[in-house]
Design a protein that fits this description.
single chain, mainly alpha
């Protein structure tokens, strides 16, 4: 159902082989990492309230700098055009720092929640929902990953001891949430919203249900997404440009030679839009063939297994630290379902609060020893 099929009707065996090689190489890399090599975290972070306050303060200052007031934030943050206008107006170092700063909110919520949990082992499920709502209140953004990833990070440690015998209902709820997240794509491109307009949009969304499998292929990958790259001759080296293009100001010089640029040019056969995400496996193949795909995805598998091991070790004694490793792994999934440019964008704009927390833990562990 992806549009390229309508004008490129060819055998997709090459695309399927690329996808299979990336998967197999990832599994090999995952198996190569010695999982039994323990990562020992400290038992608990000192001064939780102080650090929670610092994180909240950074986030609030950032929201005021970007939106002017909390009312402007809550009324406009979810809309793409509002956010784009703010990004254009704040294309400075200060704007960049403010953009990074708002990502500190969910981590401040996490630290405050854990401080309460240490004092009271069990928290009522209604209070848990309130904590999740507080986390989500500071993550409104037209970029859905900025809303979903902190929420999943919080759940990763909030529900770590939760076990269910019947998987049907959790799986059904998760599927419904995924479908609703696709509907959010309809909502976020509106200039404003009211209840009547939301109902009309939702009815239109249900009538055009072909958007759901289309969105699934766009956001979770399909071999046909690689197809436009195979029509570009001769191939050029785009990896460095793709890694650098997301850097504010500096990246402008590299955008017209990046993988995203040449991919969208081939996809649309024009420069009418730059909205399509270049598949990582496809870009690696475009730059270095099957061998580069295999080597890099093997490295991805090793990194993911390390993050998985770190999470499992930390979740026993240090839930906030475990959540940080879980969050980093969510950002790192750009290597699987998004692009190298998005990976760098995540590292620059989203990873700072988690990395800072990991460094704080490391420093306190060093001081204790």
């Amino acid at each position: 159902m992806i549009p390229v099929e309508s004008y490129i009707n060819q055998d997709i065996s090459t695309e399927i082989i690329i996808t299979i090689i990336s998967f197999v190489a990832f599994v090999i890399g995952w198996g190569l990492f010695p999982q039994k090599q323990a990562i020992h975290p400290i038992v608990a972070l000192n001064s939780l309230k102080r650090w929670a306050g610092i994180y909240f303060t950074i986030a609030l200052i950032s929201l005021f700098l970007l939106y002017g007031s909390l009312s402007n934030y809550f009324s406009g943050a979810i809309f793409t055009y509002v956010t784009l206008e703010i990004v254009e107006q704040n294309g400075t170092v200060g704007g960049f720092l403010a953009n990074v700063g708002q990502r500190f909110w969910p981590f401040g919520t996490l630290l405050a929640w854990y401080d309460q949990k240490r004092k009271k082992a069990e928290i009522h499920w209604l209070k848990q929902i309130l904590w999740l709502l507080l986390c989500s209140a500071g993550t409104l953004s037209s970029n859905r990953s900025n809303m979903v990833y902190p929420f999943l990070m919080f759940l990763s440690v909030m529900c770590v001891r939760w076990r269910t015998r019947r998987k049907f209902w959790p799986a059904s709820i998760a599927l419904a949430l995924i479908i609703l997240s696709f509907f959010f794509g309809y909502v976020r491109v509106q200039p404003s919203l009211d209840s009547e307009q939301t109902g009309i949009l939702f009815g239109n969304y249900l009538e055009h249900d072909e958007y759901i499998p289309y969105a699934y292929q766009i956001y979770f990958g399909s071999p046909y997404q690689i197809t436009p790259l195979l029509s570009i001759h001769p191939p050029s080296f785009t990896l460095i440009n793709s890694l650098l293009e997301s850097i504010p100001i500096l990246g402008k010089a590299f955008r017209e030679q990046s993988g995203s640029y040449i991919y969208n040019l081939a996809y649309h056969n024009s420069l009418v839009s730059q909205d399509k995400v270049i598949p990582v496996a496809g870009e690696l193949f475009y730059n270095g063939g099957y061998l580069l795909v295999a080597a890099v995805y093997m490295a991805f598998g090793i990194v993911y297994r390390w993050l998985d091991t770190a999470f499992k070790n930390c979740v026993v004694t240090n839930l906030p630290l475990a959540a940080c490793f879980f969050y980093i792994s969510l950002l790192f999934n750009a290597t699987l379902i998004l692009s190298l440019s998005v990976l760098v964008q995540f590292a620059l704009y989203n990873a700072a609060p988690a990395l800072l927390f990991i460094v704080i833990n490391w420093w306190q562990m060093r001081e204790a020893s």
